[in-house]
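In this section we walk through a basic example: taking a raw amino acid sequence and producing a predicted 3D structure, encoded as discrete structure tokens. The instruction is simple. Fold the sequence below.
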Amino acid sequence: MFSQKRIAFGLLIMLFAAGQLFGGVQIKKEPDMKTDKILAESEDEAAIRMLEDKFAAAFNAGNIDAMMKHYIPDKSLVVFDLVPRQQYYGADEYRKDWEEFFSHFKGRPRITITNLEITADGSLGFSHSIQQITGTDTQGHPVDRTVRVTDGYRKIGGKWLIVQEYISVPVDVATGKAVKVTY
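The resulting token sequence is shown next.
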């Protein structure tokens, strides 16, 4: 006589063998909303990082058209810069600023973006970074400027664009002079 334990054990062995023979049972998994959100955020952060990498490549190539593709192309763009004029409203105004900027250099200046930290959630994101620009001005003097940049992004039509930019340098309040950015 077979005991109930032996029958149960035999059934388990048969189920295991059938599973091995027929490829096992597929279990439908419920969507994991938390994991999906983390994956979406990391994909968005990667897309913004790629935007910044492409921006730097366009800058280093002296290609203002390619640089401007990373900004919202209308009058809603807002940029607060270090140098006079200091604030720009709209992509057309900011393009003119880049044209003037490049005119102050002999050859092409170079940009290096470091310490890039990105946060994205849904259709909004922001980043902050340290950006160093080096080159030679039109009088032959070396240029080496390091600034802090904070960018605000919007995801429009599946594409991330810079919609606001803020450029700063720490200042010694007692002297009013810029302090070297070291991070």
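Looking at the output, two observations stand out. The longest helix spans residues 33-61. The chain has one domain: 33-178. In the next section we compare this with other chains.
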